[in-house]
């Protein structure tokens, strides 16, 4: 969600502004920068995109060696200039940017109001710099006041503070991502690595409870004690986080999926086999995730049933705590998350660990909280995914789950071979002529109100993910159903011209075509996706038969369809309204 980027070192404000632009993918509605200039905190913030907020602003007015920046996605308070970050204390000495939710902010706000503090917005964040001021007014120095203020906060937070009289950048985190970037001239503090990846690949991941003071050195505390954290080196490079020749990150990341499958195939054999052994020894296996990751989990349950003959329970991470009554120390929870910071997934794995269960995670971000809190983490190695919508991370997750299912029956090499066979065809599916064909279909659908998608077996989760992609980016209502469920009520929604996407495969073709005939008889416009055309189809997208890997190849044309629908409807596919890349609040 909201994005933080701060810097202490030379030319801080310019670097923070550049970082804000790189954080736009997280989703936001306002932006701002605060800097210490000639012993005073100067703030520029407003509603709108970073480019708009700062287009007529002279950045020299923020020339500083200490600056904090933020892109806000509204949680507490309306989308207004007053609610945009940074927020400043009543004495104008302390400023803060913050991600997360302070659950006891109303009580703290009432307490501070009774002490004479004034509030000018509606956010929970505004209490933080004023709480620090309160403790300083009571005689504490800046560092001591920060510690006391942090102790009062309940909920989740990643917060960065500055003080007009201190050459310090202060950061603290609890259940919200925050990472330090270490370069030769200073330190970054950010929500996410891409905001500073072109400046340094050296990072320090903060743990829950860490409070950090940065100037020429790092002072780090946790629970009042000094601690040290390792400096890691990011495997990603800055070019991977840029659009290059592509107009949008979404299309770039769709086009990278052949490479992503190749990197999945190169996963360490020993790591895969170790996870498989954990699955074999577990008594009760659970896959948990949110959104697209949940559909990958559902797909995984089909794969394990069909290939490995193993039952796997699947749950939305947000609902998983309701299943903890069944958990034991012999249970295994496999959590899937692109960011590794999803709040609901974190809550799920913590619930599992509270019961003594083992947790393994499949994540794309090295050093993420979920990776660190799991007993073992498998890195997807899909590279940075900047578009809010998950595309390449989803196919990466499917490929890894395919490897695990086949490794369970001793056929890991066979799975790798089958996945490599897909790579050439994925290149075909993302080729320009295929994109143009799909664009013609999108042109027919751009003004519709509803799209329905059906699949059977392993393609039912694909249909669910397909519906999510369409509605996320085009704002067209899309809904997916198992083909056999049509006659149990859903078919009442079909009328003349209703678009229905039908996913077919060698295994399910006969039954799915029968479902398509039922839809066609009621006037539906049928779009077929699969290995064989059919006279029932008004439009057809050919996708080769890939058996257990059908879901990997069949989702790609729908990703492209969703992208084209967004463009034709005049929408930004990289930053859909109301959505954020990493959902770090419950």
What does this molecule look like?
- The protein has 586 residues and is of the alpha/beta class.
- It has three domains: 3-240, Aminohydrolase, N-terminal nucleophile (Ntn) domain (Glutamine Phosphoribosylpyrophosphate, subunit 1, domain 1, 4-Layer Sandwich), CATH 3.60.20.10; 243-430, Glucose-6-phosphate isomerase like protein, domain 1 (Rossmann fold, 3-Layer(aba) Sandwich); 431-586, Glucose-6-phosphate isomerase like protein, domain 1 (Rossmann fold).
- It is built from 17 helices and 25 strands.
- It has an eight-stranded antiparallel β-sheet. It has a seven-stranded antiparallel β-sheet with strand order 5-6-7-8-12-13-14.
- The relative contact order is 0.10.
- The model has no long low-confidence stretch (mean pLDDT 92).
What would you say about this model in short?
This protein has 586 residues and is α/β, with parallel strands linked by helices. It contains 17 helices and 25 strands.
Keywords:
586 residues, alpha/beta, Glutamine Phosphoribosylpyrophosphate, subunit 1, domain 1, Rossmann fold, 7-stranded antiparallel beta sheet, 23% strand
Layout of SSEs?
Blueprint: E1 3-8, H1 12-22, E2 30-37, E3 40-47, H2 50-54, E4 66-72, E5 87-88, E6 94-102, H3 105-114, H4 127-137, H5 142-152, E7 155-163, E8 169-174, E9 179-182, E10 187-190, E11 202-205, E12 210-214, E13 218-222, E14 225-226, E15 232-233, H6 249-255, H7 257-265, H8 269-281, E16 285-289, H9 292-308, E17 313-316, E18 332-337, H10 343-354, E19 358-363, H11 369-373, E20 376-379, H12 392-408, H13 412-429, H14 432-445, E21 450-455, H15 459-474, E22 477-482, E23 499-503, H16 509-521, E24 525-530, E25 539-542, H17 550-568
Parallel strand pairs: 16-17, 16-18, 18-19, 19-20, 21-22, 21-23, 23-24, 24-25
Antiparallel strand pairs: 1-4, 1-10, 2-3, 2-4, 5-6, 6-7, 7-8, 8-12, 9-10, 9-11, 11-15, 12-13, 13-14
Helix pairs in contact: 3-4, 4-5, 7-12, 7-13, 8-12, 9-12, 9-15, 12-13, 12-17, 14-17, 15-17
